[in-house]
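Possible regression after last week's pipeline update?

I re-ran a chain I had predicted before the update to compare outputs. Posting the input and the new output here so someone can diff against the archived version. Not blocking, just want to make sure nothing changed silently.
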Amino acid sequence: MELAYWILGGLLALFYLYAGGKKAVQSREQLLPMMGWVDTMPMPLVRTIGVLELLGAVGLILPPLTGIAPALALAAAAGLVLIQIGGIVTHLRRGEARLIGLNIGLLLAAAVTVWLATVWL
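New output (post-update):
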């Protein structure tokens, strides 16, 4: 179960380090080609989402790796589930139901990671 956590958690962490890092530092114009939804969101909210994704990525890796409060990995994965729920809602409100495939995949991966993180409880 630990090996499965490290594989899935590591992949999620890589994804969220990339996506969260882009949201945290790039301008609206730089984000628009990849994330069309940023045109209707205030940039402080986009930046906040980016920072939360970065914290989620770090939370998936550092606590279990260091052995310091490893149960935080479960909280990080749960937070990423909530972020994807928000992403799905945003796309549906914008009439972009066809775009939620990635969100659903990330939601499922984060939900499985929540379950796998119970190894440290």
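Follow-up from reviewer: compared with the archived run. The CA atoms of residues 4 and 116 lie 7 Å apart. Marking as no regression found.
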